[in-house]
Amino acid sequence: MTIALSGTELGKRLAEKFPGSIVESIPDCLLVNPSLLPEVAGFLKDIPDLDFNYLNYITSVDYYEYFEVIYRLTSTKYNHSIVLKARCYDRENPVLPSVTELWQGANFQEREIYDLMGIRFEGHPNLKRLLLWDGFAGHPLRKDYL
């Protein structure tokens, strides 16, 4: 079992390194400015004393007012983890930067979120439907899907 790092403490460190990158830091997670998500995630992966080298999962939630994408990161070297969240407020064209360059395991997970929720991941190498066929209308995990 991994040890969850304090989002509050890590948030302070990230806010110093990347001003404006942390929207909110609470004990169990960090809410990250979507435009700075790749920089923050890259820092968490590459800094030697954190070494978040493993992406456990990416998932998303539709809260009507916004979409939230959740990233669970783990350091296999130090046995600690953190949860990052990023929000999209545009229901018509929700976009987040892709993290596939940092973790190849994000490839299919971002495609699944795109397919079922309609969130586009900018910079993804092959963003196309994964589970549904190309002509399928809409995104069935959205709360407004009929």
Describe this structure in words.
There is one protein chain. The chain is an alpha/beta fold. The protein has a single domain, classed as Beta Polymerase, domain 2 (2-Layer Sandwich), CATH 3.30.460. Helix content is 23%, strand content 30%. It contains 3 helices and 8 strands; from the N terminus they run βαββαββββαβ. The protein has helices at 7-17, 37-46, 106-117, and strands at 3-4, 22-26, 29-32, 54-62, 67-75, 80-88, 95-97, 120-122. Strands 1, 2, 3, 4, 5 and 6 form a 6-stranded mixed β-sheet that branches. The chain has a two-stranded parallel ribbon with strand order 7-8. A hairpin with a 2-residue loop joins β2 (22-26) and β3. The protein is globular, with a radius of gyration of 15 Å.
Q: CATH homologous superfamily - what is it?
A: NADH:ubiquinone oxidoreductase Nqo5 subunit
Strand residues, percent: 25-35%
Going by helix content, strand content and strand pairing, the class is: alpha/beta
Q: Write the CATH fold name.
A: Beta Polymerase, domain 2
- In total, the number of domains comes to 1
